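Subject: DET1- and DDB1-associated protein 1

B.,
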Amino acid sequence: MDTNLWDLCFLGIVSPQADFLKGLPVYNKSNFSRFHADSVCKASNRRPSVYLPTREFPSEQIIVTEKTNILLRYLHQQWDKKVKKIPFLASKIPNFSGNLGLINSDVNY
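Prediction pasted inline below.
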């Protein structure tokens, strides 16, 4: 008998739930004329590809997370820019060091 599972599905003999497959382009057997199951098996025996970097970075470069909140850091940067634009304001603030002492880099938040 020359009937395969696809033919039985499309004829509705195997299961009525397979009716949704009727209009798909898979219906045409010639779509799979160049498919060989042996080539798929050979490909699965290979080792998976591994990313090899093209450049080496120094080991001193360590990723460190910031201890301060992103929003707070942004607001302080904007404040510093604003204060630096107005020189007389910077001169009136005691101990002005650019960050107004609002963020202490020695303290872990």
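Residues 70-85 form the longest helix (16 residues).

T.
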